[in-house]
Amino acid sequence: MFSLSALAQQDPTLKDSLQRKDVKKDKTVDLEEVQITTRRPPFVMRKDTMEFDAASIKMMPQSMVQDLLKRLPGVRIDASGNITVNGKKVSKIQVDGRDFFGSGTDAATKNLPASIVDKVQVTKYKNKDREFSQLVRPPEDEVVINLTLKADQNKGLLGDVQAGYGSKERYLGTGMIHAFQGKTRMGVYGAAGNGSPEMSSGMAVMISGPGSGGISESRNLMANFNEELSSKLTIDGNYGYDQQHNTVDRLTDRFNFLDNGGLSYIEQQKSISDNKGHRMMANIAYTPDTLSNWRIMPSFSYSPFKNEENRFATSSDANGLVLNTADSRNRTDGNRWSMQQYFMYNRKSKDGKTSMKLNWMLNLQNGTGTQFNHSDNHFFSPGAADSSNIIDQVNYTKDRGVGNTVGLELSRNLGAGFLIGLQYNLNQQSNSSRKSAFRNAGGGLGYVIPDSLFSNDSRNTNIMHQPLLQLAYRRKQLEIALNGGMSIIHQRNRLLLRDTVIRVDQRQFSPNLNVNYNFHDRGSLSFGYNISPSAPSPDQLAPVADPSNPLLVVIGNPSLKTSLTHSLQASYNHFVPKKGISTYLNGSLSFDKNRIVTDATYDTLGRQIQSFRNVDGSRRMQLDAGIQSSHRLAGLTIQPGLSLSASNNRDVGFINSQRNETLQQQYGLSLSCSIDYKEYLTLSPSASLNFNNTGYSLNELNDLSYHSSNYRMSMKLQPVRRLELNASYYYQYNSQIPEDFQRSSQLLNASIGYRFLKKEQLNFRVAVNDLLNNNVSSTTTIMSSYRENVQSNALKRYVLFVLQYKFNALGAGV
């Protein structure tokens, strides 16, 4: 906005013309102030940041940030709430550059109204550890969305409270209040409910997709605090509490491949679990000047748990002859706590050409548990006497761990685009694990007989040194980096009860190459190659049987070697703002040396003994591509999207000590579209098809070919002011699921709501989950040694009556 008088002060020519003599005083005309306004473009590119003007997108009055993001080009939000931009995952959502309720995305997208947002900025995820570093690294696979609030909306209170109750004693309650006061922000969010997770989050529409196994009741509480004490010092902190009670009724149908046919394993499992968790974290950042900064991040978590499980399992041969049965009951309770302390210091030279980074992380872990196992097992041998045994024991477990990670980095800009960097990382981990097993002596004496077969007492120490040298070139849009490093691994595993020490020592040269190219900040192309080691875990090394499932005994292999993975990655993405077209293409290839795989054998009674061994020959190939566009015409916005995926994997396993190679090919097609008409209607149809082919090198095994499909349609309609209708429909089908399971399922959810009061802040709605009463949880898994189908209980039809009140006092000067 400008006034004509102000323009005259800036333009001497205009000023002289206004003061010329031929302008008579008695003819002077007073001009009213003239306002010149310009409309911001809906999209601009600022270096590596895409910026959208939220005001250019017409939204319903009660729309939330999630509704706003869905209308942005390149943005996709799936049924689970995961957000991607141009194929890259959104790791966090910030408000005015600061975290909102921690590092998640749900709290901001589902609780902040779209009307308070001025701009939406999408930028690459920038790890705080890399801000001062000059080393060239692969581009991040994640991005961050920052919401900048309108100038008059950054002070005051924002809140939302709702309560609901319905049939089958389903209920929900949520509450959120957030205070914005300039450089100080505080917020509290709580929820409780036993319906679908999405209903507990406070969304205006109830959407729960198929496949959510089990019936859950959850409670959670979050609180956060952000304070900018000065331009140099900021403090962020948050606390979270979660409690979940889950009831699962699961049927498992597994077919274990054998060289002489196969072995069928049917299991009926019922379990009840109670898990709680407390989490606290603080982030203290101090920037004394432009050349250095400090960061300290302490965190603590405590998680008690309880679990009760009843399981009945039957194993049969290829002819249907029952080989064994097991009726077991397990009860476990215990707790785990962990504490972390992260410290980082960055420093740059005055000329900005030399950088140093020092970081250290201390990690402490502790866990204790008590497990009761009782199992009645029966074994049937054709032509021989049947047998049985009973396992009745208790296990006391105690695990402790101390970890230290230290990193030092020096980098120097040599001029003419050339860089050099030195890096050293030290990772030290010490763990102790003790399991004391006791059998029931009977006669009321209790569990007093030590059972050395299932007992274990081990001390494990892992030390990894990783020195690295980088030579790089960075010029305009091009980055090239060649890294040469060593991975030096020392591992000591002491089995005290067996007086055994297992040693793993390995030195591996680990070169990697990174090439990045940016197309005028509207796209990028990257390529990378690297080698990464992976040492075996203590559980994979320790030769101690696990008695929790008497038909599946797991025993570690102390001779395992460290595995190495060679990886190639390439990615391309491009965005055309004027046309609203975004495309991406990602490809990867990896293969392993000494990969750790499962080695399963079976005795004559059908019991599976599972161990581990190293193999070569595994590889994985993956290709993903997608395109999305945005079209606007007379209040109508259409955003179609297409994505394709293909994979070709070869896995190596063992079946009764015979090598079996599995070749698995998968092809996928996904279509989606978002259709919006002004503020009245939103339609979101989508469909996906997946085709799978699996072949095995052992001739006796049958190759598999199956397909699955998923269809979804969601609708939000506001035919008249204050009235809102919502509906969502899902359909899924999987041809691999057995006919006696449920191969297909349909899920229809709907709700109707009406807003009251002058500012429409009071909302009453009626919602129905699973109108067709057809919800089901079914999954299929195909591996080199077995195929498995699992079906669990799921939340079915119920009605919920919800009353919700929202208040927005932002800009009120609180």
The mean pLDDT is 83
Helix coverage percent? under 10%
* First and last CA, distance: 29 Å
How much β-strand is present in the residues?
A: over 45%
Q: What value does the Rg take, in angstroms?
A: 31 Å
Please identify the structural class as seen in this structure: mainly beta
Task: List unreliable stretches of 5+ residues.
Answer: 1-26, 34-39, 197-212
Number of helices: 6
Characterize the biggest β-sheet: 26 strands, antiparallel, barrel
Q: Which of globular, elongated, flat, extended, rod-shaped describes the shape?
A: globular
The tally of beta strands, per DSSP, is 42
Please give a structural write-up:
By secondary structure, the protein is mostly beta strands. Residues 1-26, 34-39 and 197-212 have low confidence and may be disordered. The longest helix is centred in the N-terminal third of the chain and has 7 residues, at 4-10. 4% of the residues lie in helices and 65% in strands. The two termini are 29 Å apart. It has a 26-stranded antiparallel beta barrel. A hairpin with a 5-residue loop joins strand 29 and strand 30. It is built from 6 helices and 42 strands.
Short description:
The chain is mainly β and 814 residues long. The protein is 4% helix and 65% strand.
Secondary-structure blueprint of this entry?
Blueprint: H1 4-10, H2 12-18, E1 43-46, E2 49-53, H3 65-70, E3 75-77, E4 83-85, E5 88-95, E6 98-99, H4 106-111, E7 117-124, E8 142-149, E9 155-166, E10 171-181, E11 184-193, H5 197-200, E12 215-228, E13 233-258, E14 261-289, E15 292-316, E16 322-348, E17 354-379, E18 387-415, E19 418-440, E20 447-450, E21 456-475, E22 478-495, E23 500-509, E24 512-518, E25 523-534, H6 538-541, E26 552-554, E27 563-576, E28 581-593, E29 595-602, E30 608-615, E31 619-628, E32 631-633, E33 636-655, E34 658-677, E35 681-696, E36 704-717, E37 723-734, E38 744-756, E39 762-769, E40 777-782, E41 786-792, E42 798-808
Parallel strand pairs: 5-8, 26-30, 29-33
Antiparallel strand pairs: 1-2, 2-7, 3-4, 4-5, 5-6, 7-8, 9-10, 9-42, 10-11, 11-12, 12-13, 13-14, 13-41, 14-15, 15-16, 16-17, 17-18, 18-19, 19-20, 19-21, 21-22, 22-23, 22-24, 24-25, 25-27, 27-28, 28-31, 29-30, 31-33, 32-33, 33-34, 34-35, 35-36, 36-37, 37-38, 38-39, 39-42, 40-41
